[in-house]
Amino acid sequence: MLIEYEFYSNKDGAALLKNKRDLLCEATLKGVCKYFGIKYTSAPVTSPSKPAKPVTQIKEQEYGNGTYNKNFKVTTGGDALTVRDARPVNGKLGNVLGSLPNGSIILGGYCLNNWMGIKFNGKQGFVSAKYLTLEGANNPQVPSTTKPFKNGSYGVKAKVTANELNVRKGRPGNANYSRIIDKLTKGEIVTVHYCLDGWFSVYDCENSPGFISGDYIELILN
Length: 222
What we know:
There is one protein chain. By secondary structure, the protein is mostly beta strands. Among the domains are: 66-134, SH3 Domains (SH3 type barrels); 152-219, SH3 Domains (SH3 type barrels). The protein has 2 helices and 14 strands. It has a 5-stranded antiparallel β-sheet with strand order 6-5-4-1-7, with no helix packed on it. Strands 13-12-11-8-14 form a 5-stranded antiparallel β-sheet, with no helix packed on it. A hairpin with a 2-residue loop joins strand 11 and strand 12 (199-201). The protein is elongated, with a radius of gyration of 24 Å. The chain starts with 10 loop residues before the first helix and ends with a strand.
């Protein structure tokens, strides 16, 4: 049986795990006893254990969507920051890949809805950007929109900057690259999804897939 009471990546949850361990254990025992029909008898009172070190209150950070490629410091106020294999979807968190100790320095990649993409043990990971502090006192907390764009999932709006932009059936090197399935005009707004080698997918899987060059768009980050 695996019980997840709370998460260290949540400051309130971390405080609960640190300061209410005895109550959590007792509640678990009561639940097990109730399930098996066993009368629960509390243990005799003993001398209290050494109190846990209080969790430091920290200021939660907010970062705009976009590519950063800057160093961040983990500032959870607790012990560690959970690394997951996916950003939250409909409130559901991704699987746990591991954790980063408080004070770790990481390279932040693409940020979406305040979740930062990072490389973790050779894999793509994601951490809550609320507990990251941008390194360098003079670095603004805004993403870089310089080209070329980094590979990865974006899911943001973009504005067409060319007078006319072809939407192709495939990326360069694909047999369908020469097949033009749509045309976008200057100023038109589209949603860009996955980026690969400077080319963005612009339609989801329910429609005919299309691809545009990132050289002729600007991301809309607000």
